[in-house]
Known about the structure:
Distance between the termini: 34 Å
CATH architecture: 3-Layer(aba) Sandwich
CATH class: Alpha Beta
Strand content: 15-25%
Largest sheet: 4 strands, mixed
Low-confidence stretches: none
Oligomer: single chain
Shape: globular
Structural class: alpha+beta
Number of strands: 10
Radius of gyration: 19 Å
Mean pLDDT: 90
Number of domains: 1
Strand order of the largest sheet: 3-4-8-9
Amino acid sequence: MYNGDERLIHDGKYLSNxxxxxxxxxxSDILHNMQRGxxxxxIVKCALENIGIQTNEEQASIKPYDLNGPIILSSGKPARIxxxxxxxxxxxxxxxxxxxxxxxAPAKMPDETGDYPYLSGxxxxxxxxxxxxxxxxxxxxxxxxxxxxxxxxxxxxxxxMDEKLVLQKTISLKTVxxxxxxxxxxxxxxxxxxxxxxxxIHEYRIFPxxx
Length: 211
């Protein structure tokens, strides 16, 4: 991994341009959907590390889930955490900021090599959803201030056991709030760890490929 000090090289000579310059140029707009989602993963990572749970050293871009979490007692394996992000304010105006939705659609299943075959079946490749919400409604607020963020934890098996939710590709913020208590950043790490103690052995539903 890079630390930001590395400089571009041309014709054997170091230029003044650094990786930190690149990160600022490409990824500093955290209100943008893609960057905010990655930032939300980082927040969850920080919450876990604050209670001594080590997770991915870098973003899990090639894994079918976002973060490794605490050990699930029933399986003895690290929890597979999927982080989803929503916000009441974005880089561009949105018509109905209070109608946030989160993606919970089954995704392609990787094979034993980690590849995703063209005709692969689909399932939810995670044990826990962490739904994050940036609640500020004014772009002038500081997105780094975690007091503006809310968090909701929903174990995947509860979706799989619900005959309606299991078939849905998205879940509304309203439904999330009806199923999950709201958590602050200070509560998040402990709540994820507590959730891992209660997840039962469960076979997740496999859907045929629709590609």
